[in-house]
Design goal:
The structure is a single chain. By secondary structure, the protein is α+β, with helices and mostly antiparallel strands. About 30% of the residues lie in helices and about 25% in strands. The protein contains twelve helices and 22 strands. The strands form five sheets. The chain has a five-stranded antiparallel sheet. The longest helix has about 40 residues. It is elongated and about 130 Å long.
């Protein structure tokens, strides 16, 4: 029935001001509305009109040409008790515009004016309080859902605790608070905090700092220990005293404190504060709780990622190839490039250990597989060599002991791991040269760069290490004159695929050609040259682990520093210096 126009209401006696007793029964149907009806039917239609009008949802107020009220329906009488027949609408401020919506006696009313014939008009008035409340609640719920969706999106990206914490306080302002303070769970007796304050341009200003646990407000310290926070009168006073609400008096602020859930304990606590005139209602507290749950999940993920990254960095540092130790008359050169550059570790390894008589045990090898598992296996090999070289310095016998140790490990853990390896002992000679004894376990034979510029491939053969008991191990002895170099390398060099067709191996012949006439190069420069030649051949294609170890006889001259060119170095360990 909404929108029914009472266009045929007329004054009962034709005067401009109807009598006070005039009711809707004064309405007279016109000829069009009663055409085809008998006199009795027309009489019944007129008599039923008051009952019809009384059941309309909207109230009706009919006015004459001079805005004098002629009729007020029962619904209109309840909504606008000030209006009476014979009066005017001037007592109702909300009826000055058309259409209009206004609050009257605690109810929200919506009114519209419809012109009638002969200058008359009818006002339709409806109580929309409940529909407005429902619409406002729906809009508020949609706004909260949209806010939480944005929070989930923004907090799904940062994997660094500091960036996640800054995002939390930035998102809380201004939707939840004028000022938001986040305090993370303490580490080593100190707690980091972030604060976002609303600026004039609505872009929050984010600050950060560190406090000792003893400097935290008591309510915050209790919440960080897992005590469920509650509304306390002195929470605002504590926040003001801590300097977290600059320029605000305790009486002018309302605040809430909520825990951010973590794994076993709160990941942190969030303090939100705004003007006391904008008190936190129940739905606001619920929204803060939902926000805290998402913020806690994001911070927990970021903290877990940081812990895992720290563990991974520590493990990577322990699995990286260890640079050879300085030895009399020896200049070392190394190059290392793992197949998976992001991991920084791989299955190739090299190193050396000093011997009591002034010599050194050195080695370069390659284990089966790639990535983390291969790097862990190389760590086991290095540890075995570190222990075994103290009881055996003869290279072939040392490889035999290493093979026995690996067989025991693989049988115990059910791992079918094996390795190829070149292991040697270098000792300085009285004429300034070096004496090398090398043993081979299935690895590529080393190259020797003679003083004449020629390249000699040593006849070193042998079986894989860690496959069968008592493997056949080859052994050779070679002398290096001052300025001559012995070169060890992994199959990542010779098996690098590239060239013009993209699938051709670099091969030993091209490697020999690349180092021919390079006898005057220092060992670090020679290792770097081999790495560069290999990378140029690959042209950014995938490759196996690449490792190079060069040792040059320096003669009686000053000892040079070892080369650390291509070895990835964890930040802060101080091993990033290179030299030759």
């Amino acid at each position: 029935m909404t929108g029914t126009d009472v266009r045929d209401l007329e004054p009962g006696d034709g005067r401009s001001t109807p009598p006070r007793v005039a009711r809707v029964s004064a309405w007279r149907p016109d000829a069009n509305s009663t055409a085809g009806l008998s006199a009795l039917e027309r009489s019944h239609a007129a008599a039923d009109w008051p009952e019809v009008v009384e059941h309309l949802r909207e109230g009706l107020v009919v006015c004459g040409p001079d805005d004098t009220v002629w009729h007020v329906s029962p619904v209109a009488e309840r909504l606008l008790p000030e209006i009476a027949v014979g009066g005017t609408l001037g007592t109702i401020d909300g009826l000055r515009a058309d259409p209009t919506e206004f609050v009257h006696h605690g109810r929200r009313l919506r009114a519209r004016r419809v012109p009638l014939s002969a200058g008359r008009s009818c006002w339709y008035v409806e109580d929309v309080s409940e529909s407005v409340v429902r619409a406002d609640a729906l809009a508020a719920e949609r706004s909260r859902s949209a806010f939480l969706a944005v929070v989930g999106e923004k907090l799904g990206n940062p994997l660094h605790p500091d960036r996640a914490a800054a995002a939390v306080v930035r998102l809380a302002v201004p939707t939840l608070a004028e000022v938001a303070v986040l305090v993370l769970a303490p580490r080593s007796g100190r707690a980091r905090w972030w604060r976002a304050s609303r600026a004039d341009d609505d872009a929050p200003v984010v600050e950060r700092g560190v406090l000792s646990v003893t400097e935290l407000p008591q309510a915050v310290a209790d919440s960080l220990r897992g005590v469920q926070p509650h509304t306390v009168d002195w929470l605002v006073e504590q926040a003001v005293e801590a300097g977290w609400l600059p320029g605000s008096a305790a009486a002018d602020v309302c605040a809430r404190l909520v825990q951010l859930p973590g794994r076993d304990a709160p990941a942190g606590v969030l303090l939100v504060a705004r003007a006391a005139t904008d008190w936190y209602a129940e739905e606001d507290v619920d929204l803060i709780g939902a926000f805290a749950a998402r913020a806690g999940a994001a911070l927990t993920t970021a903290l877990l990622y940081r812990e895992q990254a720290e563990v991974a960095d520590t493990l990577q540092s322990s699995l990286l190839p260890v640079e050879p130790v300085e030895a009399p008359g020896v200049q070392w050169g190394t190059a290392y490039r793992p197949a998976q550059a992001g991991l920084r570790i791989g299955g190739d390894f090299y190193g050396s250990h000093r011997l009591p008589d002034g010599g050194s045990v050195f080695f370069l090898g390659d284990v089966s597989g790639k990535g983390v598992e291969a790097a862990v296996f190389t760590g086991q090999l290095r540890q075995c060599l570190h222990a075994l070289h103290r009881v055996e310095q003869q290279p072939a016998r040392l490889l035999q002991l290493l093979n026995d140790a690996l067989l025991e490990t693989t049988l115990a853990h059910g791992q079918g791991r094996f390795a190829t390896l070149v292991l040697g002992v270098v000792r300085p000679h009285r004429d300034g040269g070096l004496s090398l004894t090398l043993a081979g376990g299935g690895h590529l034979p080393p190259l020797v760069l003679r003083a004449s510029g020629e390249v000699e491939q040593l006849p070193l053969r042998g079986m894989l290490i860690g496959v069968v008991p008592d493997p056949r191990v080859g052994q050779v002895t070679v002398r290096l004159a001052p300025g001559e170099t012995c070169l060890l390398y992994s199959d990542g060099v010779t098996e690098a695929r590239g060239g013009r067709r993209g699938d051709e191996q670099l091969g030993t012949d091209r490697l020999v050609q690349a180092v021919t006439d390079c006898q005057r190069m220092p060992a670090p420069a020679l290792a770097e040259r081999i790495e560069q030649v290999t990378c140029d051949w690959l042209a950014h294609r995938d490759h196996d682990d690449i490792a190079v170890l060069a040792l040059r006889a320096t003669g009686a001259g000053p000892r040079s520093h070892r080369h650390l060119h291509a070895v990835p170095t964890p930040p802060g360990d101080g091993a990033g210096t290179t030299g030759s």
